C-alpha cells in the first residue's frame, strides 16, 4: 500500500511503499524500505514557485510527492495543529560512526507520522577520550598535547565521519581547533577543574549534533542544531553532576516550541549539557545524562512519548555483560525504572525518570541496532497481578558502615544524629537497616555516579560518627537489587535465599525500600557476579513464572475449599 510519509512538518516529504502499521514495533518491510538505504537515496530539490515554496522529493521507487509549506501542512497526522510530538534520544553507541548516523537518520525518517525532537550524545567513546585527554594534559606538557592519542582519536573520528557523510569539515573544524587550544590551556595550568572538565566534554555533544543536523539538511530533512546551554537548560552549578532547575521547563518549551511554530525544522539538541545558573558556565548532568535531557524536553513540551534508543533490546532482566542470557523487560513502572537506574542499571541515567514521571509521559527504550524489537515501555502504572521479579541489578564497590551506639539502650535521637552527620558532609546513603541503637548502611560510592567518595571524606565521616558510636568500616561490598513486586517479597526472598545458600553465600545486610519495588542484598564484591548469575538463572532461566502460577493456583484452590 502506498502512503505519504511526511517528516518534520513539511520539511521533507516522501511517498513510499510501506505497511499500514505505524506502531513503533517496526515492520520488517517498513524498515527495509525506508531505512537509511532509502533515505540516503532521496534526492530533495527545493523549488521556489513564486509565493509557493515547495519541496519535491524523488525516491528510487519513483514515488514522489510535493509538499507545500503552508499552514495546512502544519497539521499532524491526527489532524491537530502539528506541534512536536515525541523526543527521540540516541546514545553514543547509536551514533558512533557515519554509517550509524545514516542509519539513525533513516530510522527517524521512517516514522513519518511523528514530529520528533532529537537528542544526541557524543559519538561512540568520545566523552571517555575527552576526559582521558584532559587528565593526561595536566601532566604531559604543552608541547606534547598535539600528540595525545585521545585527541587524535577524537579528531580522526569526527573528520572521518564528516568526510564519509559528504559534509564540509567547517561544520566541526572550529571545535577541533578550540579543543586543542583548551587542552594546551589545561597543560599550561597543570590543572583540570570540574568546571573545565565539563567544558571539555561538551565538545563531544556540540560536534555530534552539528554533524547530524548538517547531514539531515543535506538529505533534505530540514533540521536545526541547538546547544542545550543556549536554549534554557538551567542547572545547579554542581559541575560534572548538575541538576536541572525548574526554570528549565518553561524556557525550553518557549524556545523549541516558538522556533518550531515560526519555521518547522527538526530540533537536534545536545544531550548531557546545561548552563549553571550562577556561573553561566557549561555544566554536565552526570554520565549518561542525555537520557535526562530527553525526558526534560518531553516534560517541557508535554510530548506524547519519550524514546531512548540504545544498543540493546530495551531494559533487560540483568546487565548483559554479567548475564549474556538477559532478556528484555516489556513493561516497567517509573518507580521500577528509577530504582533500577539508581541501583546500578547503567542503561538509564538515575535521575532521568523524574521528569517523565512528573509529566506522566511514557518512556520507550528501544534498540537502534534492532528497531523491530518491541523494547521496554515505562509508564506510571502497569498490571502487577502476575509480576514477581522484573530485573536484577548490581552496584559494586560499595562502602558499608556498621554503627552501634555507645550509649544505653533506649536513647532517643541516635538515628537522627547519625543521619545529620551524613547530611552535613553531603554524603548520600543507599541502603539502611536499623534498630534503636544500631544501624548498618551503605554509602553511594559515587554520590550519583561521578564524584568518588574519597578516602579523606570517609575518614571524616568515621571520625564524626565515632563521637557517638562504635563504627566498623566494611569496604568492597556489592548491592544486589531485586527489582519487582515487593508484595511478593516472601516468595522472592525464599527463592533468593535458597539460591544463595546453595552457592555458599552469606548475605551481610538486607534492605527493603519503601518504594515497594526493590529488595537489596549486600554481599562481598568477590561473590557478587556469581550471585547475580545464579539468581538470574533461578528467576529468569528456569520457568520460575510457571512455578509461581502453579503455587498460586494451589493456594487459591485450598482457600476455596476452606
Ligand atoms: N539492565 C540492563 N538492561 C539493558 N542494558 C544494560 C543493563 N545494565 C547494563 N546495561 C548496559 O547498558 C548499555 C546501554 O546503555 P548506554 O551505554 O547508556 O547506551 P547509550 O550510550 O546508547 O545511551 C548496554 O549496552 C548494556 O551493556
Ligand atoms: N556523552 C555523555 C552523555 C551520555 O548520555 O552518553 P550516552 O547516551 O552514550 O550514555 C556520556 O558519555 O556520559
TrEMBL record:
Cleavable signal peptide: none
Reactions catalysed, as given in the entry: L-aspartate + ATP = 4-phospho-L-aspartate + ADP
Keyword Transit peptide: yes
Pathway assigned to this chain's UniProt record: Amino-acid biosynthesis; L-threonine biosynthesis; L-threonine from L-aspartate: step 1/5; Amino-acid biosynthesis; L-lysine biosynthesis via DAP pathway; (S)-tetrahydrodipicolinate from L-aspartate: step 1/4; Amino-acid biosynthesis; L-methionine biosynthesis via de novo pathway; L-homoserine from L-aspartate: step 1/3
Record keywords: Amino-acid biosynthesis, ATP-binding, Chloroplast, Kinase, Nucleotide-binding, Plastid, Repeat, Threonine biosynthesis, Transferase, Transit peptide
Enzyme Commission number: 2.7.2.4
GO CC annotations on file: chloroplast stroma; cytosol
GO molecular function: aspartate kinase activity; ATP binding
Kinase among keywords: yes
GO biological process, one term: lysine biosynthetic process via diaminopimelate
Purpose of the protein: Involved in the first step of essential amino acids lysine, threonine, methionine and isoleucine synthesis via the aspartate-family pathway.
Family note: Belongs to the aspartokinase family.
Protein name (record): aspartate kinase
